[in-house]
Amino acid sequence: MKQIDVCLTPELLHLHTVENTIVVVADVFRATSCMVTAFAYGVNSIIPVATIEECRDWQERGYLAAAERNAQRVDGFELDNSPFTYMDEQIRGANVAMTTTNGTLAITKSRSAVKVLVGSFLNLDAIARFLQSERYDVMVLCAGWKGRVNMEDTLFAGALVDRLKDSYAMAEDSAIMSWRLYCQGKDNLPSYLANSSHIRRLQRLGIQKDITYCLQHDLYDVVPVLRGNALVSMQV
Amino acid sequence: MKQIDVCLTPELLHLHTVENTIVVVADVFRATSCMVTAFAYGVNSIIPVATIEECRDWQERGYLAAAERNAQRVDGFELDNSPFTYMDEQIRGANVAMTTTNGTLAITKSRSAVKVLVGSFLNLDAIARFLQSERYDVMVLCAGWKGRVNMEDTLFAGALVDRLKDSYAMAEDSAIMSWRLYCQGKDNLPSYLANSSHIRRLQRLGIQKDITYCLQHDLYDVVPVLRGNALVSMQV
Questions:
Q1: Given a cut of 90, is residue B195 above it in pLDDT?
Q2: Which of A55, A97, A216, B2 has the fewest CB atoms within 10 Å of its CB?
Q3: Does the CB of B13 have a partner CB in chain A at under 8 Å?
Q4: So what's the pLDDT on residue B206?
Q5: Residue A81: predicted pLDDT
Q6: pLDDT value, residue A200
Q7: Considering the domain boundaries, does residue B236 fall inside one?
Q8: Looking at residues B85-89, what average pLDDT do you find?
Q9: How big is the CA angle at B11 (ends B5 and B16), to the nearest 5 degrees?
Q10: What's the gap in Å between the CA of B140 and the closest CA on chain A?
Q11: β-strands B223-227, B230-234 pairing
């Protein structure tokens, strides 16, 4: 039986096996939800970069650019870190460079995997169906918050475990814990997450609309995958 | 309001604040449950050491010694890593040196805290009452399994959050997650833990009796605390 493992934060990645594994990176609020939305609206590619300077370099070469630090937009870039920014005609066929506090680092840290996919509640079903058709073990890498675990990415991991549980064994306690939390909260995720630290952080920034949007399941049939240094959309 | 934080594994300790904090170390299966049992049976002190060699050094100086690796007893030492070993007359007034796979390292890593306490379900109420009388924030350090998170220590953290929740704010998502898991499982912890990785590991070793014992709440009124290099019993 294939296995599904959950790494609760990139700080624990060295304890998990990435080789011979398909990694699904989740940064639900909001990096991977933005990426999935962008692909649903026809973006050509997204290059995840580590620094704001690199982002600026790509911008000078004609890329659209998005930079976020501490949940806030960095000035001088076209795109916001809100998924609604990506629902725009300028996105279609564009190449984007993106740097975020947690999500882009999690993606670049997973490079040695068989494949690196971008997951969110928005494309949960598409991810699950794609994985079912593959023969590899799966690891969900939760982006967390500055190295710490967070609730929303753990819940996404639990949601994917839930979708795959008939054909994948849960590798370790982190997978079981994520799954149990998701089962407890799934009937009302917005309320279940209401006390979480990142929700409080985002609510201070006044973006309740983004939160509600990012918690919707199965909105888009896209599976972004890392090819070289860029994410592209895989057809499923 | 005081805060309660949960560090899910010693690998994440650098992201948490130990200074000005009381740390409660939990290695429920079975190091801290053994320690609490030993103090309930009158041990004088327990020195947690990192290596089997150090353990042997203390043994040569007249200490009773206990060494565990990979959930199994190491030959040549008086004490087992089962809590039942410590329910013995030879324990009364004795000084013990102990090394375990996860628990003793977690204790020594927390040295810079205001106080380092040893927690388990067996002394949950004693720990909670002691903390209520103190003015410091609390951090539960789950010993985990070789750096990974585990279910049983996370559940202990959640149990302590549950006991303290009226007078302590939950610091971050790890505290909320632990508490939610405990609330979900508390009515039948043995069954809730039945699929966890360490339970499976221990059951292969045939020690169901230890598991059942270690999950009992509030059996002993002892609070082991680190003084210098040794744990001693604090009266509460």
A1: no
A2: A216
A3: no
A4: 67
A5: 83
A6: 74
A7: no
A8: 93
A9: 30
A10: 15
A11: antiparallel
CA distances B53 to B13, B57, B74, B99, B213, Å, are: 26, 6, 11, 10, 30
Which residues of chain A are under the pLDDT cut of 50? none
Distance of CA B205 to the CA centre of its chain: 21
Residue B118 has pLDDT above 90, yes or no: yes
CATH of the domain at A39: 3.90.1560.10
Q: Is the minimum CB–CB distance between B198 and chain A shorter than 8 Å? A: yes
Q: What are phi and psi of A195, to 5 degrees?
A: -95, 0
Would residue A230 count as lying in a domain?
no
**A42 to chain B, minimum CA–CA distance in Å?**
34
| Token digits of residue A194 | 């209401």
Q: Which domain holds residue A152?
A: 2-225
Residue A196 within any structural domain of the chain: yes
Contact A47, A94 (CB under 8 A): no
What is the number of structural domains in chain B?
1
- Contact (CB<8Å) B176/A196: yes
Interchain CB distance below 8 Å, A146 and B180: no
Contacts of B74 (CB under 8 A, 6+ apart): B52, B67, B68
Residues A152, A157: Cα–Cα separation, whole Å: 9
Q: Indicate whether B204 pLDDT > 80.
A: no
* Any A CB within 8 A of B203 CB: no
Question: For all residues of chain B together, what is the average pLDDT?
Answer: 93
Residue A45 contacts residue A231 (beta carbons within 8 Å): yes
Measured CA to CA in angstroms, residue B40 lies from B99, B221, B225, B232, B235 at distances of 19, 8, 13, 11, 11
Please list, in sequence order, all residues whose beta carbon lies within 8 angstroms of the beta carbon of residue B182, skipping any fewer than 6 positions away: B155, B157, B158, B159, B161, B162
pLDDT(B167) > 80:
yes
In terms of residues, how long is chain A?
236
Looking at per-residue confidence, does B202 or A63 come out higher? A63
pLDDT digits (tens, 9 = 90+) for A146-173: 899 999 999 999 999 999 999 999 999 9
Q: Which residue has the higher pLDDT, B44 or B104?
A: B44
- Chain B residue closest in CA terms to A154: B177
Q: Is the pLDDT of residue B235 over 70?
A: no
**Which pair of tokens denotes residue A159?**
């949601």
Asked if the structure places residue A234 within a domain, the reply is no
Neighbours of A167 (CB within 10 A): 12
CA–CA distance, B162 with B49 (Å, rounded to integer):
31
Q: Which residues contact A227 (CB under 8 A, 6 or more apart)?
A: none
